[in-house]
Amino acid sequence: MFRPRRFGILVLLSLVLASPVPLPASAQPAAQPAASPAGAAALSPAAATVSYIVLPGDTLTRIAARFGTTVAAILDANPQIRNANRIYVGQCLQIPVPGSSSSQRISFAAGTTSATREDSVAAGVTKRYVFRASAGQVALIDVLSNGGIAQLAICGANGRVVMSYDAGVTSFRAPLPTSQDYFIDVRSAPGSAVSYTLQLIIPQRIRFAPGAASASLTGSVPHFGTHNYILRASAGQLITVDVQAVGRVILIVYGNDGAVLQSDRVGSSSFTGRLPLTEDYFLDVRSVGPAAARYQLDVSITD
């Protein structure tokens, strides 16, 4: 469960890459990433790559020498490069590295919209994860170091950098620009290994039908699982959320700015309140009973 820093939990960093969707809109939720077996390799070990952000003065020849590979191998791994003599600063390249491990594909358990990985990397090593998302979907990615200093970078399969290591942060939250695979690269700071927790959330967007001010959605969540929803609302509007469930669930509500409107400590499955800002709001339905829960989520927004 991804939660804001309030109450001593995780960090949310707002990085806005696209304009928000205005209300009202349709009641159809956004498409969720295609599921794949947990830990499945996105690339074969023989073709394993690491992400590299091009620096001033770099050429493919210099990069190839640095990583012990060839220019031809780099070109094969980066079909978007049309001219081997033209790469640009800030470009995200996939560099084949002999002996490196393949990417791990992140998938979500049935009924959930998030996944967590406990992992570690040795000094100077990068570990790669891959997930698929649709254009406009919001991704929330957080790397929490349990020892050492972790660094985070994100880029698309098309080579576009979404966030570079230079950002100096280990949290990301923004809409994704294109429907494609995305790579999450976690590396250790120079000279030290790091153990960390990686969390990925892609919430399901709630959209209202034209002229409507409410929507109802049904779902199920496994024991201690969470289904994350997101919707857009304006400052001063009244939001009412009610979750009726077979099994025990709680509702957590917080804004894009990190302000918690209802935490898990309340233990309630409903919420009503005036919204402080015009922004996206997150509604997390979490199962806390001894078994999976089936539920209906009813949400309305009025002036």
Q: What is the highest CATH level, the class of the largest domain? A: Mainly Beta
Strand arrangement within the widest β-sheet reads 3-5-10-7-8
CATH topology descriptor of the largest domain: Jelly Rolls
- What is the total tally of β strands? 20
How would you classify the helix and strand content by structural class?
mainly beta
Radius of gyration: 21 Å
Secondary-structure element order, as H and E?
A: EHHEEEEEEEEEEEEEEEEEEE
**What is the helix fraction of residues, given as a range?**
under 10%
Q: What is the CA–CA distance across the termini?
A: 30 Å
Strand content: 35-45%
What gross morphology would you assign?
elongated
Q: Given the structure, what is the number of helices?
A: 2
Total separate domains: 3
Low-confidence stretches: 1-47
User: What is the CATH architecture descriptor of the largest domain?
Assistant: Sandwich
